[in-house]
Amino acid sequence: MAERRAVALVRALFGRRCLNLRDGGQGMTSRDARALWADPAYAERTGAAIREAFARPEVRAKLNAAANTPEARQRRSATSKAVAQTPEGRGRLARATEASLTPEARAKRNTGQSEDARAKRRESLRAVAATDEGREVLTRAVAASTSPVAQARRLLTRTVNQYRLFAAAHPELFQ
Fold first, then answer.
1. CA distance 99 to 157
2. In this structure, what are the phi and psi dihedrals at residue 55, rounded to the nearest 5 degrees?
């Protein structure tokens, strides 16, 4: 996944034909690329360049626009569904879910946003609510999230998450 992000970033910066990671292609093979990224000096140098590029707003905007196209969302959805069909993929998803339920991960999610990010989100919601269409969308969203069905779904999710936390804390009971 990290390799795919790096390739997407390099292609976004330098064009789609800047590198070819397909086996048998004109450029590097995926094995060569993995070997290259295994070199700490290369990884640090390239990682620094990628971080520097992500710091530029125009690069972030271009990547966000490309990632949020209907085609890109459809590809991600298809990939996720395919991963969930394999036993290894289901195992990875289960481990990721367990990791996201740890107290450390929950604390990070709850405190991870800066005051600037919260202020920006509040301003964005105020701007949306200033229009008739935006008010209607927000009203529907609030009504949907407070409906009995949504509340029951949240209760079920909390119950399942508590069960998973208990199972992770007491594996000897579930063998």
1. 16
2. -75, -20
Q: How many CB atoms lie within 10 A of CB 122?
A: 10
Given a contact cutoff of 8 angstroms between Cβ atoms, the answer to whether 149 and 157 are in contact is: no
Supply 39's token pair: 């070199």
24 — pLDDT class (breaks 50, 70, 90): very low
What is the SS3 assignment for the chain? CHHHHHHHHHHHHHCCCCCCCCCCCCCCCHHHHHHHHHCHHHHHHHHHHHHHHHCCHHHHHHHHHHHCCHHHHHHHHHHHHHHHCCHHHHHHHHHHHHHHCCHHHHHHHHHCCCHHHHHHHHHHHHHHHCCHHHHHHHHHHHHHHCCHHHHHHHHHHHHHHHHHHHHHHCHHHHC
With contact defined as beta carbons under 8 Å apart, do 53 and 59 qualify? yes
Q: Between 121 and 88, where is the model more confident?
A: 88
pTM tops 0.70, yes or no = no
**Tokens matching residue 67:** 């990632």
**Max Cα–Cα distance, the chain, nearest Å:** 57
At 112 the pLDDT is 58
Average pLDDT, the chain: 81
Residue 20 predicted with pLDDT over 60 = no
